[in-house]
TrEMBL record:
InterPro entries named among the record's database cross-references: ARM-like (IPR011989), ARM-type_fold (IPR016024), HEAT_type_2 (IPR021133)
Compositionally biased intervals (Pro residues): 361-371
Region (Disordered): 354-382
Highest taxon, organism lineage: Bacteria
Protein name per the record: HEAT repeat domain-containing protein
C-alpha cells in the first residue's frame, strides 16, 4: 500500500481521502522514496508503464525505473520479451535504454534468446559509445545474428565506439572461420568509424576489386536528388576534375558515387563531412554531372548558393565547356532553381526562393505557364477544409489546382530532363561513357574522406 500511495502522490492524485493534490516538494520526496525502495517498487512501476489509465504517466514510471537501475534490469529484460503490443515495447525500450547501470551490466542481455532483447540491448549501447568498449567481444558475434534488426543495432553500437573498436573489427575480419556476413558487417562498421583510413590494405584491395567487378556491367539507376549539382556538356572527365580543382579520383560504381553524395549532403556532424569529396559521373548522354560542394564557397555563411556565386561559377565553366548548368533542389521538392551558362555568358538564372533577382528571360527549357513562385491560389480556395486532415486537404489542393490551371510542383530535375540530363531519370537507355569517380576537394586533401558506409 505504501508504494501505491507514493505512486498516487507522484501523479498528483491526492491522498487516499481525495483531499487536495500534493505539492511539488512532496512529489519529489515521494520520487526519492520510491527509488530507494528498489526492487520492491519495480513490479508496480512496470504495471503503470503499460497502463494508459493508471495513476501515473508512463514516462514518469519509465524515468523512475531508469533511476532505480540494476534492480530493474532483469524485470525490464523480461518485459521486452513479453511486451503485449508495439506501444508497450516502445515504452519498455525507452526505460531499458536509459537504465542507470554500468555498460557491462547489459552483457547478459546481448545473449538473450529473444531477438527483441538482443536488438534493444545493442541499441541501448549506442548512446554509451566508448563507455561500452568492454562489450565489443559480445557485440561482434551479433553481426552474424540470424535477425536483421539485431545485426543493424549491433553495427550501430560498434560504430559509436571509435576509435577503440577499429582493432577488434579488423581482427574479426581476419579470424579464421568467421562467416561472410560477420566479415561484411565488420567492414561496414570500419567504414562508418573511420572511412577508408580505417581499412587495412587487404580490405581496400578487396573493395576495389568488388567495385571493378560491379562497375563493369553497371546499369545507371535514378538518383534521389536532395542538393544542388552541376551539369557540363563534355565527356572529358580529366578536364572537369581540373576545372573544379579536384584530385585523387577514385574509380567507383555510379551507385557508390550517388550514395556518397547523399550521405555527405545529409551529414550532421561538425567539420568537413559535407565538403571533402565530390562525385563526378561518367559521361551520361554526353553530359558530365558533378555532385557535391567542390568550391570553397561551401564555407560561406550563405552556403555558397547565392545568385552572384552561382552565376560566376556557371559563366566560368561554360567558357571552358561551352555549356554549364547548375540545378538546385531539396529532398521534399519545395525549392527549385537553375542556371544556364553558354560560352561564358549566363543566359538564364532562376531561383524560386529569390525570384526578384532572376537573370535573363524565361528559357524554352523551363516549364510552360507560371513558374513555381507564381502559383497563387484564389482567396478562399480552401475555406471550410480542415487543414489537419491531410488526405482531405491534398484532395482539395489537387482539385483547386486543376480548376484554376495552377501548375503542380515543378522540380529542377524536370528542367534538367529537358535541358541536359536528369539524375532522377537515369536508366538502361542512358548512354554511359567512362567511369564514375569520387574525388577530393581542398578540404578532402586536408582532412580525407569522411567516415561512412556506402552502397557499392
Amino acid at each position: 500500500m505504501e508504494i501505491q500511495r507514493l505512486i498516487r502522490l507522484i501523479g498528483l492524485i491526492g491522498d487516499e481521502a481525495g483531499d487536495t493534490p500534493f505539492t511539488a516538494p512532496e512529489r519529489e520526496t515521494a520520487r526519492r522514496a520510491l527509488i530507494d525502495r528498489g526492487a520492491e517498487a519495480v513490479p508496480p512501476l512496470l504495471a503503470v508503464l503499460w497502463d494508459d489509465h493508471g495513476p501515473l504517466e508512463w514516462f514518469e514510471a519509465a524515468w523512475l525505473l531508469r533511476r532505480i537501475g540494476a534492480p530493474a534490469l532483469g524485470p525490464l529484460t523480461a518485459a521486452l520479451a513479453a511486451a503485449p503490443s508495439h506501444v508497450a515495447l516502445v515504452r519498455a525500450r525507452w526505460a531499458f535504454a536509459g537504465l542507470d547501470v554500468p555498460a557491462a551490466a547489459f552483457g547478459p542481455a546481448l545473449r538473450h534468446p529473444h531477438p527483441r532483447v538482443r536488438e534493444t540491448t545493442a541499441w541501448a549501447l549506442q548512446r554509451r559509445g566508448a563507455k561500452a568498449l568492454c562489450l565489443v567481444p559480445a557485440l561482434l558475434p551479433l553481426l552474424d545474428d540470424p535477425d536483421h534488426g539485431v545485426r543493424v543495432s549491433a553495427g550501430g553500437a560498434l560504430r559509436t565506439m571509435s576509435p577503440g573498436v577499429v582493432g577488434p573489427l579488423r581482427r574479426a575480419r581476419r579470424t579464421p572461420g568467421s562467416s561472410a556476413r560477420l566479415r561484411r558487417g565488420a567492414l561496414a562498421a570500419l567504414a562508418a568509424v573511420g572511412g577508408p583510413a580505417a581499412l587495412d590494405e587487404r580490405d581496400i584491395a578487396a573493395v576495389r576489386r568488388l567495385i571493378a567487378v560491379r562497375a563493369r556491367d553497371e546499369v545507371p539507376e535514378p538518383i534521389r536528388v536532395c542538393a544542388p549539382w552541376f551539369a557540363l556538356r563534355t565527356a572529358d572527365q580529366d578536364a572537369v576534375l581540373a576545372a573544379f580543382g579536384l584530385s585523387a579520383p577514385e574509380p567507383v560504381t555510379m551507385r557508390l558515387g550517388a550514395s556518397a553524395w547523399q550521405h555527405d549532403a545529409h551529414a550532421a556532424r561538425p567539420g568537413h563531412g559535407a565538403c571533402s569529396r565530390v562525385y563526378v559521373s561518367p559521361a551520361l548522354d554526353g553530359w558530365t554531372l558533378v555532385f557535391g560542394s567542390p568550391f570553397q564557397d561551401a564555407h560561406r555563411a550563405d552556403g555558397g548558393i547565392s545568385g552572384p556565386v552561382i552565376r560566376r561559377r556557371c559563366a566560368e565553366l561554360s567558357r571552358r565547356f561551352g555549356e554549364a548548368h547548375w540545378y538546385g533542389m531539396r529532398c521534399a521538392g519545395e525549392w527549385a532553381a537553375w542556371c544556364f551558362g553558354e560560352r561564358g555568358a549566363i543566359v538564364r538564372h532562376y531561383d524560386a526562393a529569390d525570384p526578384e533577382r532572376a537573370s535573363g528571360p524565361p528559357h524554352p527549357w523551363e516549364p510552360p505557364g507560371p513558374l513555381p513562385h507564381e502559383a497563387d491560389f484564389p482567396q478562399g480556395s480552401f475555406d471550410g477544409i480542415d487543414a489537419s486532415d491531410a488526405e482531405a486537404f491534398l484532395a482539395s489542393y489537387e482539385e483547386v489546382r486543376r480548376e484554376t490551371g495552377i501548375p503542380g510542383p515543378y522540380p529542377a530535375t524536370d528542367v534538367a530532363a529537358r535541358a541536359s540530363v536528369s539524375p532522377a531519370a537515369l536508366g538502361p537507355r542512358t548512354r554511359v561513357t567512362g567511369r564514375a569517380v569520387l574525388a577530393l576537394t581542398a578540404c578532402g586533401r586536408a582532412h580525407g574522406h569522411p567516415p561512412g558506409a556506402l552502397r557499392i
